[in-house]
Amino acid sequence: MATTGSQEAPRQASALALARHPKLWIFPSILCALVAVVLSLLYMGGIINPNGHLHRLPIALVNADQGAPPPGQPVNFGTQLTRAMVAGTPDDTVHWRQTDDAGAHDLISSGKVYAALLVPKDFTTAITRLATGGATERPSLTILTNPGLGSLGASMAAQIAQGAAHQASLAAGKQLLAAVPASNAAGPDGGATARLLLADPFAVTTRTGPIGSHSGLGLSAFYYTLLSVLSGFIGGNIIHNGVDGALGYSDSEIGPWHTRRPTVPINRTQTLLLKMVMTAGIMLLTTSLVMACAVGVLGMDAPHQAVLWVFAYCASLAVGLGVQAINAAFGGIGQLVSMFVFIALALPSSGATVPLQAVPGFYRFLGAFEPMRQLSDGIRAILFFDARADAGLARGWIMIAVGVVLALAFGFGMTRYYDRKGLHRWTPQPSD
After folding, report:
1. What are the tens digits of pLDDT across the range 328-347?
2. 57-208 maps to which CATH number?
């Protein structure tokens, strides 16, 4: 006789039995494969060959030489040198910005160039003395790097300037050796040392521009930007999941404890508004903690702390609002979409580690609108370039405002559309 007073427990499924169903594997396998391929191509494609993708890396070139042209020459040696360097470097790889000494320091102070090559005012005089045997040391050119734009970019610019100066030096040496008789270079060793100096008459010294000792060799701006973006991205997703769990639209599971709260009837627009308000409030906390840890605990160099805090808060808020808008529009795959928008596509196109002038054109295109590039330029301007508007801070503020407006318009536009269509979250929608 069958018993009627009790209910049988549901039959437990077996993992091995379920694993035999091909349909269970298809969607996650395809999605994981796509993510692996796209991320590999994105990240490795941006850094694999910076020299091969070099495109108009800006370097300042200063000719302060005041010497008179040598006999038979229309211009002095400083002018010959700078002309040879510009002519010997393809225009599509280096953008030589010829200026005076004050202009070069302004370009460095505003983050417009990665390095500056300076020709001293007594350059022609020193070369002439070397050619006539009146000097035993080569005149020196100075390369001043700009580590505030990143150690890799500054190093690349210094190497390019050194290489161009060396080639120009060898060319000038041939000219000097042909013009100077061997008797003019006579000495204890028969003039061999003097002629060796004339064969390569320019020396090059490299100096690092001013930067604090607690700035990560110029990388603190990138990592602080990354912290701001991750605070908005991760915080936005935590808020999204937490609100959905609290309102009963998703399960809450911590360890072995699994709960599902009663569903609160609320439309999509009001849910998004709640999440955005919470994002604005919680970002105040995370931004303050990031600054307290980086500046207060670790001692990061930050000369404009108030401006840095406000900018970082607005940056995290813009990212957080964007995350909420994308999640509201795309649902379950929204976190993956926002990951590509704010992390996967943004990191290699930020120009914060590898200069945008040294990555393929696709990344330079992304850098025109991807948020991390705009935020990195703004934070870099605050940390290293005296919070100058023309160093990237003004563009950073503009792009933050654009990002906030787009997030609000897209997010609320999509949720209101869903609400008008009657696609309420408390009503399960039939699947095909």
Report:
1. 999 989 999 999 999 999 99
2. 3.40.1710
